[in-house]
Amino acid sequence: MAWIYLSIAIVFEIGFALGTNATQGFTRLWPSVFTLLSAAGGIFTLSLALKTLDVGVGYTIWTGIGSIGTVILGALIYKEKITPAKLGSFAAIIGGVVLLKVAAGI
């Protein structure tokens, strides 16, 4: 169940990051409401996942995969460029997540 909670937390994390951009400095009401609810949902579901997972593993996966999702969706939604440096960073994050899972015996 912890991995399901962590997956949900990652979706909230991506929504939070993308929503923050849409708030225009928290001057737009509905994007701001969405962003705050996403932040709360992400922290809540992460806390449920961390009842079982080690905090180092859970938090790192949450931020790492959330970052990758944010960059990919940022490129699709906001037309941000994905550069070779970003692709290399994706590979490093994914490699780190795999190594964390192996090291944790998951």
Automatic annotation (TrEMBL):
Homology family: Belongs to the drug/metabolite transporter (DMT) superfamily. Small multidrug resistance (SMR) (TC 2.A.7.1) family.
Keywords per UniProt: Cell membrane, Membrane, Transmembrane, Transmembrane helix, Transport
Pfam families for the chain: Multi_Drug_Res
Keyword Transport assigned: yes
Protein name: Quaternary ammonium compound-resistance protein SugE
TM spans (from-to): 29-50, 57-78, 84-104
UniProt membrane topology term: Multi-pass membrane protein
UniProt gene name: sugE3
Subcellular location as annotated: Cell membrane
